[in-house]
Write a structure and sequence with these properties.
The complex is a heterodimer. Chain A is mainly alpha-helical. Chain A has two domains: 78 residues, no CATH class; 156 residues, MetI-like fold. Chain A contains eleven helices and no strands. In chain A, helix 1 packs across helix 10, helix 3 crosses helix 9 and helix 8 packs antiparallel against helix 10. Chain A starts with a helix and ends with a helix. Chain B is mainly α. Chain B has a single domain, classed as MetI-like fold (Orthogonal Bundle). In chain B, helix 6 crosses helix 8 and helix 12 packs antiparallel against helix 13. The longest helix of chain B is centred in the first third of the chain and has 34 residues. Classes of the chains: A mainly alpha, B mainly alpha. Chains A and B meet through helix 1, helix 3, helix 4, helix 5 and helix 6 of A and helix 2, helix 4, helix 5, helix 6 and helix 8 of B.
Chain lengths: 266, 276
């Protein structure tokens, strides 16, 4: 190995180490601030305390927004899992033309600016007279979560051997039983990972949700943004720390189920 | 069996129907509205928008910031993708976790964190004063540099992962073969390694650039209202100014930009794919 190559190699590892610090900075800072007692975000905090966590119980609007977010994320993920899986089966097994185009269509909400999709849906819903915030959020979030489901389930179905279903039928299963006992277990990991990412995408969504909230129905990111704009204090950091914990748990589950390297597949 | 295969296609119907009604039709309507004048088809809204020097400043802001964010991500992300592909054991887990964990955390959380980091008494300022780069603490929040750094932080994984996905497929023996044949390290990189990573670079560039063009929360929190991009202007005109005509036009411009990025990148991907 020449000196130049060694130098390049050292540079690569130094940059990688710096990138890890850079990537984790916002998370570490948020957690540090949330456990400090300073109201002005001093770092390192003069003293450690749990006062911001104690405040969470009385923060106006926080718990309703968490509840709304959980409801919307859970339900929209479920609906997307059902519609998306059926569609993925049709694309893999069907013989109709335009299957490629349908895939692109269902994944496209991920590629277009969220803000534009949100505005378009806002105007569309108004046109048909839908003004109820909760229902609008749910309908819109199905569009946001669908791409994650279609992409992952489609990839899993492409690897599934459909003759196994015929085998199950020959062994005496009814069509429904065959699907339930053979196809559903085989797709389990795909359901779980795509469900997790769809759920997180819905929980974190900002640019679409912003158009469908009203004074009573807000999702968590919208409520948090309101806190940031009105009175920024470390209570927001405490909420963020909770979300970071949620993400860590999801990542550990994902690692156990499919492995970190598979999660990094693009 | 034959009839089974043709009937199975109908399983796609609910999802396709749903997205057509809820998503495709409203998008079409948005496009149509931006091209509608008082009487039928007209591009008067666009003429007005593009005739205003302010609009060009906004478009310039959008592209300049997105460009800087993309370049910064490429400069950091390219070496990191190689490190990730070579890493083993604990190092690999740490790298992967540092890349994937931020991906699953909301942008409001991260933008808020950067507000704290970029303050005059924030860690960046403290660090730069500490190592003697700055003689006194400075505020990076509400500056373009602060915005670019914060946005690059949020979008960096979208540069690293696509490049990593091609780097991990490269056979290391190719480089050894080059070395055996007496090719110098520098031209080994430019003639063997770099062309093979081009597809990853193209898709990383497209991801980050399109995300950076349409980001909305990050500029709102890190640079404020004085600095407008197409996305913040679109959001403001709907949420605050109630100027939906302007909003429809800027939304359409954004949409066209996003579609153009997808088309150009898939064209480029095809060309570099043949090249590699």
């Amino acid at each position: 190995m020449t000196g130049l190559e060694r130098l390049v190699q050292i540079c690569v590892w130094v940059i990688a180490a710096a990138a890890v610090i850079f990537l984790l900075t916002p998370l570490v800072v948020t957690i540090a601030v949330s456990f400090g007692n300073s109201a002005v975000f001093s770092l390192p905090p003069p003293e450690w305390s749990l006062r911001w966590y104690e405040r969470l119980a009385n923060t106006r609007g926080l718990w309703p927004s968490i509840l709304t977010s959980l409801q919307i994320a859970g339900l929209s993920t479920l609906i997307s899992l059902m519609l998306g899986t059926l569609c993925a089966i049709a694309i893999v097994r069907g013989t109709f033309p335009g299957r490629e185009a349908i895939t692109t269509f269902l994944v496209s909400p991920l590629m277009l600016p969220g803000l534009v999709v949100g505005i378009a849906m806002l105007q569309g819903f108004r046109l048909v007279g839908l003004r109820e915030a909760w229902m609008s959020l749910l309908i819109a979030h199905v569009v946001i979560t669908m791409p994650y489901v279609v992409r992952t389930v489609l990839a899993a179905l492409n690897l599934f051997d459909f003759t196994l279903l015929d085998a199950a039928r020959m062994l005496g299963c009814s069509p429904v039983q065959a699907v339930r006992r053979v196809l559903v277990p085989a797709l389990g990991p795909a359901f779980l990972t795509s469900g997790m990412f769809a759920f997180l995408a819905s929980m974190d969504n900002y640019p679409v949700s912003i158009f469908f909230t009203d004074a009573w129905t807000k999702t968590l990111p919208i409520q948090m943004l309101q806190y940031v704009e009105e009175r920024p204090d470390p209570t927001i950091a405490a909420i963020s720390a909770g979300l970071i914990l949620l993400a860590v748990i999801v990542m550990i589950i994902g690692d156990r189920l499919v492995g970190l390297r598979r999660l990094a597949d693009f | 069996m034959k009839s089974d295969r043709s009937l199975v296609g109908w399983l796609a119907a609910p999802a396709v129907f749903y997205l057509t009604i809820v998503y495709a039709l409203p998008l079409t309507w948005l496009l149509a509205r931006s091209m509608m004048g008082p009487e039928g088809f007209s591009l008067v809204l666009f003429e007005e928008f593009l005739g205003d020097p302010f609009s060009w400043r906004v478009i310039g802001n959008t592209l300049r910031i997105a460009g800087m964010v993309t370049i910064l991500c490429l400069l950091i992300g390219y070496p990191v993708a190689f490190a990730l592909a070579r890493a083993r054991g604990v190092v690999q887990v740490v790298l992967l976790a540092a890349i994937i964990l931020p991906l699953s955390i909301g942008v409001v959380v991260k933008a808020f964190a950067w507000q704290i980091v970029l303050r005059r008494d924030g860690v960046v300022s403290q660090f730069l004063v500490g190592i003697g780069v700055w003689s006194e603490p400075q505020r990076l929040l509400f500056t373009e540099i602060g915005l670019v750094v914060g946005a690059a932080n949020v979008f960096l994984p979208f540069m690293i992962l696509p490049i990593y996905s091609v780097v991990k497929l490269i056979d290391p023996r190719l480089m050894e073969a080059g070395a055996t044949l007496g090719v110098s390290p520098v031209s080994r990189f430019f003639r063997i390694l770099f062309p093979l990573t081009l597809p990853g670079i193209v898709s990383g560039l497209a991801f980050v650039f399109s995300l950076a063009v349409s980001m909305f929360v990050i500029p709102s929190l890190l640079i404020g209202d004085r600095f407008q991009t197409l996305a913040t202007l679109t959001g403001r005109s709907f949420l605050l100014m109630r100027n939906e005509a302007l909003g429809s036009v800027t939304a359409t411009v954004l949409l066209v930009l996003a579609v153009a990025i997808v088309l150009i990148s898939s064209l480029l991907a095809r060309r570099v794919g043949r090249f590699a």
